[in-house]
Design brief:
Keywords: ATP-binding, Nucleotide-binding, Transport
Distance between the termini: 46 Å
Strand order of the largest sheet: 6-7-8-3-9-10
Strand content: 15-25%
CATH superfamily: P-loop containing nucleotide triphosphate hydrolases
Pfam family, one: ABC_tran
Bound molecules: adenosine-5'-triphosphate
Protein name: ABC transporter ATP-binding protein
CATH topology: Rossmann fold
Number of domains: 1
Structural class: alpha/beta
GO molecular function, one term: ATP hydrolysis activity
Radius of gyration: 19 Å
Organism: Nocardioides marmoriginsengisoli
Oligomer: single chain
C-alpha cells in the first residue's frame, strides 16, 4: 500500500465526518461533523436513539461506506487516499467484523469459518494464536461443526474468533448480542472484554443494550448525527439515564419540528 501514514495513537479516528443521503426534500444528514478518536486497547460502545447515525458512523469507520466529507484514519492510514483494491486489503488485514446475524458461511465448519479471513488473504494461520483464540471462546470441541449444528451463542463465538484470528488493528461489532439470549450474550461480552484485557484488542461496538455497554471502557452517545456525550466505565444505571434523556430530547425535537 502506498498511502500516506498519519501519526495517531488512536486505532481509528474520525475527523469532521459528514454523511448525507439523498438530496433536496429527501436529504438526510446522517452524520453532521463527527470528530472522534477510538483509543487502541479499549472497548468502546456507541449508543444513541434510533436514527442517530450509529450504523452510518460505524460503516464509515470500518471502510464499508464512504463519508460525504471529512476523514477516517484507521491504524494511521487515511481511507480516502486508498484505491478500492487497497481498501479491500485494509478491510481484510486490519479490520475485524462481528455482525448481529453472525454471517457465518453455512457450508463451512467452525474451524473453516474462523480461518476464512486468513484463507482469503492467502496467509498461513499462526497455530499457537489460533489455539489461544479457540480456547478463549471455548470452541475446541465444536471445530468440526457447521453453523446449523451450533446454538446462536456458539455461532457468535465462532464469529468473534474469526474476527480475532487475523490480529486486526480494530474490531467493529454491530449489535453482537442482539440475537442472543441473555446468558449467551453475557458469554460473548465476557469474551470480548477478555480479548481487550488479555490480548490488547481494540473493539468498537454499536449497541442499544445498556448491559452490553456497561462492559465497555467508554460509551459514546450520538444524537442527530453528532457526538453529544461520553462516559468512562459507566454502570448500567448511568447508561440508562443518559439514553432515556437522549430519547426524550429526540422526541421533543421531533414534536418541535413537526417531523
Ligand atoms: N441508505 C440510506 N439512504 C437514506 N437514508 C439513510 C440510509 N441509511 C441511513 N439513512 C438515514 O440516516 C439516518 C441515520 O441512520 P443510521 O442507520 O446510521 O442510524 P442508527 O443510529 O444506526 O439507527 P438504528 O438504531 O435504528 O439502527 C437515519 O435517519 C436513516 O434513516
Amino acid at each position: 500500500m502506498t498511502s500516506p501514514v498519519v501519526t495517531s495513537p488512536a486505532a481509528a479516528r474520525a475527523v469532521d465526518l459528514t454523511k448525507v443521503y439523498g438530496s433536496g426534500e429527501s436529504e438526510v444528514r446522517a452524520l453532521a461533523g463527527v470528530t472522534l478518536d477510538l483509543n487502541a486497547g479499549e472497548f468502546t460502545a456507541i449508543m444513541g436513539p434510533s436514527g442517530s447515525g450509529k450504523s452510518t458512523l460505524m460503516h464509515c469507520l470500518a471502510a464499508l461506506d464512504t463519508p460525504s466529507s471529512g476523514q477516517v484514519i484507521v491504524d494511521g492510514t487515511e481511507l480516502g487516499s486508498l484505491s478500492d483494491k487497497d481498501l479491500t486489503v485494509l478491510r481484510r488485514s486490519r479490520i475485524g467484523f462481528i455482525f448481529q446475524s453472525f454471517n457465518l458461511i453455512p457450508t463451512l465448519s467452525a474451524r473453516e469459518n474462523i480461518l476464512l479471513p486468513l484463507s482469503l488473504a492467502g496467509a498461513a494461520p499462526d497455530q499457537a494464536w489460533f489455539d489461544a483464540v479457540v480456547d478463549t471462546v471455548g470452541l475446541r470441541d465444536r471445530l468440526g461443526h457447521r453453523p446449523s449444528e451450533m446454538s446462536g451463542g456458539q455461532q457468535q463465538r465462532v464469529a468473534c474468533a474469526r474476527a480475532l484470528v487475523s490480529k486486526p488493528s480494530i474490531i467493529f461489532a454491530d449489535e453482537p448480542t442482539g440475537n442472543l439470549d441473555s446468558v449467551s450474550g453475557a458469554d460473548v461480552l465476557a469474551f470480548l472484554r477478555r480479548s481487550v484485557d488479555e490480548f490488547g484488542q481494540t473493539i468498537v461496538m454499536v449497541t442499544h443494550d445498556a448491559v452490553a455497554a456497561s462492559h465497555c471502557d467508554r460509551v459514546i452517545f450520538l444524537a442527530d448525527g453528532a457526538v453529544v456525550d461520553e462516559l468512562a466505565r459507566p454502570s448500567r444505571e448511568e447508561i440508562l439515564e443518559h439514553i432515556t434523556a437522549l430519547q426524550a430530547a429526540a422526541v421533543g425535537n421531533r414534536r418541535d419540528t413537526g417531523a
